[in-house]
Design a protein that fits this description.
The complex is a heterodimer of chains A (114) and B (114). By secondary structure, chain A is an all-beta fold. In chain A, 0% of the residues lie in helices and 49% in strands. The termini of chain A are far apart. Chain B contains no helices and 11 strands. In chain B, the strands form 2 sheets. In chain B, strands 2, 4, 5, 6, 9, 10 and 11 form a 7-stranded mixed beta sheet that branches. Chain B has a 4-stranded antiparallel beta sheet with strand order 1-3-8-7, with no helix packed on it. Classes of the chains: A mainly beta (114), B mainly beta (114). Chains A and B meet through β3, β4, β8 and β9 of A and β4, β5, β6, β9 and β10 of B.
């Protein structure tokens, strides 16, 4: 029979390359966005966040870009390493809605080849 | 290690049974969140408690209930279990209850209903 489940987008890169993971959101009222990394068998791990009054935010080897006009979010990872292999989720929240209720995207599988 | 602990790590039970999942938040965090991660639905918000009181509710089934105790640990009770309840259940915690609070996730409980 057919398998049932989410078919996650995948991204394969070579070690040392830069990676860009994209996320589209639909709620125009969303004003807080977060990227999480989930390794196999573990819980989501916070990477970086951005508020809607910003277009760009940088962390250590990561940059998040927010385009509110087209409701698009991206995560850039510089000099990708094998340890970056994981599923990456974007999540959103709105101060106008229920407090900490995060809405997660479906996720992107990043595979880094040595 | 996020500082959020969850027990048990794995749980195998039969349909119709009831189970309790336990979560201890990071030291000092007042909010606890429960999420369900399944193959076909992704990461879904279930419920949030802040300092002992329910603060936000997602698509949580009536067969599921939760509470947060005076010592701030939380329990998620799942009853009349069905095969479709098999999933990973994550607890997260944050300092207070604002939409922009970073949520730190625990390692999860893998529930298998046979």
């Amino acid at each position: 029979g057919e398998s049932v489940g989410l078919h996650l987008p995948t991204l394969s890169v070579q070690e040392g390359d830069n990676s860009i993971i994209n996320c589209a959101y639909s709620n125009s009222a969303s004003d807080y966005f977060i990227w999480y990394k989930q390794e196999s068998g573990k819980g989501p791990q916070f990477i970086i966040d951005i508020r809607s009054n910003m277009d760009k935010r940088q962390g250590q080897r990561v940059t998040v870009l927010l385009n509110k006009t087209v409701k698009h979010l991206s995560l850039q990872i510089a000099a990708t390493q094998p340890g970056d292999s994981a599923v990456y989720f974007c999540a959103e929240n709105s101060r106008g809605t229920s407090y900490g209720k995060l809405t997660f995207g479906q996720g992107t599988i990043l595979t880094v080849h040595p | 290690d996020s500082g959020v602990t969850q027990t048990p790590k794995h749980l195998i039970t039969a349909t119709g049974q009831r189970v309790t999942l336990r979560c201890s938040p990071r030291s000092g965090d007042l909010s606890v969140y429960w999420y369900q991660q399944s193959l076909d639905q992704g990461l879904q918000f279930l419920i949030q408690y802040y300092n002992g009181e329910e603060r936000a509710k997602g698509n949580i089934l009536e067969r599921f209930s939760a509470q947060q105790f005076p010592d701030l640990h939380s329990e998620l009770n799942l009853s009349s279990l069905e095969l479709g309840d098999s999933a990973l259940y994550f607890c997260a915690s944050s300092v207070v209850s604002q939409a922009t609070d970073t949520q730190y996730f625990g390692p999860g409980t893998r529930l298998t209903v046979l």
